[in-house]
Design goal:
Number of strands: 11
Distance between the termini: 97 Å
Number of domains: 2
CATH architecture of the largest domain: Orthogonal Bundle
CATH superfamily of the largest domain: Transferase(Phosphotransferase) domain 1
Helix content: 25-40%
Structural class: alpha+beta
CATH topology of the largest domain: Transferase(Phosphotransferase), domain 1
Shape: globular
Radius of gyration: 27 Å
CATH class of the largest domain: Mainly Alpha
Number of helices: 10
Strand content: 5-15%
């Protein structure tokens, strides 16, 4: 082999090594990009949670860790517990191709609910079977009011389908059953139960602060409790928002049929005993109907232990105000919440 050929190859190899070293040095000197929520993209798989260190804050669903705290996901994005970033709502193609139904969970007047699986995550798949307008309202309200710690998180929607976060402990009317299980029996304390009461009133405060939204699907205790879910850390979140009108500009009516019973507020009842019910003549009302129902719901949540009865005794004052027949005389949800907090501190 000629000498000049060997020398030429040696020179080229040396040059390549020098260029490689320069490129590596340049890339190492570049500043690192800060952690940010994931940018919108389509056709992706679920981002897997990474191992959290002491420096990385673990955030709840709908939030992602920043330098000092947890930040809410951007609009039309979501995250699940343990994630360090947010991802866009699931679109139609992803919902129809990547969601696998597992089993039926429950059915109501508007939708069926199924346990489903998405990329190894358990999710709730809601499917409308009646009143498509109510279902669309439910989707719109969940998207508008989240992320918020006391509102269930939507993961995406497509026509008659809505995907939400799955909470295996079910709805609030099962709280006594849940706290009776071996896993949670030691947590069946007045502290746990009062925190549930604070969550419930906190939800009302949040809804009333958004254009005076009224929880209409609440004609009895069981129906009211079914609108809320129990999370695995034993907190309450609101889940069903298909009957959530705004009383900001004018009075509302919860449906077009006559309402009966002593659970509902007096103004929800037909006021004219001398003639039959006529929807057109039924007067409207506002969010103070929710306030009337607080004592009954909280009595159920607190249970019948000796300590709970002591707490209820201390709540008699604010609860009697909630039961004023004149809605204008009842406190706001915020005032009830502040009274609860003060009562708990004193207790």
């Amino acid at each position: 082999m000629p000498v000049f050929s060997i020398r030429r190859r040696s020179f080229l190899g040396l040059a390549a090594s020098v260029i490689t070293i320069v490129i590596i040095t340049y890339l190492s000197a570049m500043p690192r990009l800060p952690n940010r929520p994931m940018e919108p993209h389509r056709g992706r798989t679920a981002p897997k949670p990474t191992q959290h260190t002491e420096e990385t804050k673990k955030c709840q669903a709908g939030y992602y860790p920043s330098k000092n705290d947890c930040e809410p996901c951007p609009k039309d994005h979501f995250s699940l517990p343990g994630w360090i970033s947010c991802t866009p709502y699931l679109k139609c193609d992803e919902i129809r191709s990547n969601i696998r139904r597992v089993r039926h969970l429950a059915s109501g007047g508007v939708k069926h609910v199924y346990l489903a699986e998405w990329n190894s995550y358990s999710v709730a798949l809601n499917e409308a079977h009646a009143s498509k307008s109510d279902f669309a309202h439910d989707v719109a309200m969940l998207q508008m009011l989240t992320p918020h710690p006391r509102v269930n998180q939507p993961l995406g929607a497509c026509g008659d389908l809505l995907v939400t976060q799955y909470h295996p402990l079910s709805s609030a009317e099962k709280i006594n059953e849940v706290l009776g299980r071996d896993k949670y029996r030691k947590l069946d304390t007045v502290k746990t139960r009062f925190r549930l009461a604070l969550d419930y009133v906190g939800v009302l405060d949040y809804l009333h602060g958004h254009s005076s939204l009224v929880m209409c699907d609440t004609n009895d205790l069981g129906k009211t409790l079914s609108q809320y879910l129990i999370t695995e850390d034993l907190r309450l979140i609101v889940n069903d928002l298909d009957a959530l009108p705004s009383a900001k500009d004018k009075g509302i009516k919860c449906g077009h049929r006559q309402i009966f019973g002593d659970f509902v507020a007096p103004e929800e009842l037909w006021p004219y005993s001398n003639k039959p019910f006529e929807d057109e003549e039924m007067p409207g009302y506002n969010e103070k109907t929710d306030i009337w129902k607080i004592p009954r719901v909280v009595e159920f949540l607190l249970g019948g232990s000796e300590e709970s009865l002591k707490v209820l005794e201390n709540l008699k004052g604010i609860h009697s105000k909630c039961k004023e027949k004149d809605p204008k005389e009842r406190p706001t949800a915020k005032e009830v919440l502040e009274s609860y907090k003060s009562t708990w501190i004193n207790f």
